[in-house]
């Protein structure tokens, strides 16, 4: 093993394995898991919604492509987030991918800032679904939530794409090692 590398083993013999529903304490701590995840770069998104539950949004990195038929993303949202109630009540959302110039607005949507103030930090429009679309998003995906699955502290929202725009050539905003980074498009 290279100097400085730490190996966290999750392997257990067959007899010791338990069902995923078991009450057994996890063998990897949340702190160790977060530390490992912190070294993996991710894109950064503002996930926004509007509807009967009101307008809300939060900064997300737990966003992933699921299938291209039908085109579907997943978004993980912490049930303790101030935005959660709106996402629980609304069926529509927009996943706005951020460019390097969006670091300040990403910080506003990343917690503690009142919802109206978050939205006041950027320019918004509505297009196909009525969910807030960031005018200068690097790319956006307007979605209908097709399934919700509760896993631990989070809900996983499966989101079918109804309209979108593709990435342009600007620098991307990345997040890793607990900091923002800029990535040129080529
Ligand atoms: N998936 C998430 O919910 C998620 C992801 C990134 C950051 N955050 C939140 O943003 C703040 C700053 O994060 P940070 O990256 O600077 O330091 P951190 O040590 O809290 O997190 C390091 C990494 O662990 C993962 N992570 C953090 N909190 C998580 C959670 N509750 N559930 C699942 N994965 C999680 C993410 O990949 C994150 O980049 C924290 O409050 C953190 O909880 C949450
Ligand atoms: C870079 C980055 C990435 C993420 C987050 C933060 C930051 C800074 N946060 C946390 C989220 O944006 C917000 O801070 C929490 O929901 C708490 O916000 P409130 O103060 O309750 O609105 C976050 N939360 C979540 O539920 N899923 C996610 O994927 C992410 N990803």
UniProtKB/TrEMBL annotation:
InterPro entries documented for this protein: Flavin_Rdtase-like_dom, NADH-dep_flavin_reductase, RutF, Split_barrel_FMN-bd
Catalytic activity: FMNH2 + NAD(+) = FMN + NADH + 2 H(+)
Identification of the protein by name: FMN reductase (NADH) RutF
General function of this protein: Catalyzes the reduction of FMN to FMNH2 which is used to reduce pyrimidine by RutA via the Rut pathway.
Region of interest (Disordered), residue spans: 1-27
Keywords: Flavoprotein, FMN, NAD, Oxidoreductase
Family of the protein in this entry: Belongs to the non-flavoprotein flavin reductase family. RutF subfamily.
Basic and acidic residues bias: start-end ranges: 11-21
Residues in Flavin reductase like domain copies: 37-182
Membrane-spanning segments: none
Enzyme Commission number(s): 1.5.1.42
Lineage start: Bacteria, Pseudomonadati, Pseudomonadota, Gammaproteobacteria, Oceanospirillales
Pfam short name (any one): Flavin_Reduct
């Amino acid at each position: 093993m290279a100097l400085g590398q730490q190996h966290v083993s999750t392997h257990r013999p067959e007899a010791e394995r338990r069902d995923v529903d078991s009450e057994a304490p996890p063998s990897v701590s949340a702190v160790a898991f977060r530390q490992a995840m912190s070294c993996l770069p991710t894109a950064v998104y503002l996930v926004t919604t509007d509807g009967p539950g009101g307008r809300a949004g939060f900064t997300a990195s737990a966003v992933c492509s699921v299938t291209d038929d039908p085109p579907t993303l997943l978004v993980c949202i912490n049930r303790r987030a101030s935005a959660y109630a709106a996402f629980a009540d609304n069926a529509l959302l927009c996943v706005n991918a951020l460019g390097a110039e969006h670091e300040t607005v990403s910080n506003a949507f990343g917690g503690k800032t009142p919802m109206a103030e978050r939205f006041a930090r950027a320019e918004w429009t509505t297009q196909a679904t009525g969910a807030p679309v960031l005018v200068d998003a690097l790319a956006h995906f307007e979605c209908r939530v097709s399934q919700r699955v509760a896993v631990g502290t989070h809900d996983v929202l499966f989101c079918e794409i109804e309209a979108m725009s593709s990435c342009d050539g600007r620098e991307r905003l990345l997040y890793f090692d607990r900091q923002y980074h800029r990535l040129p498009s080529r």
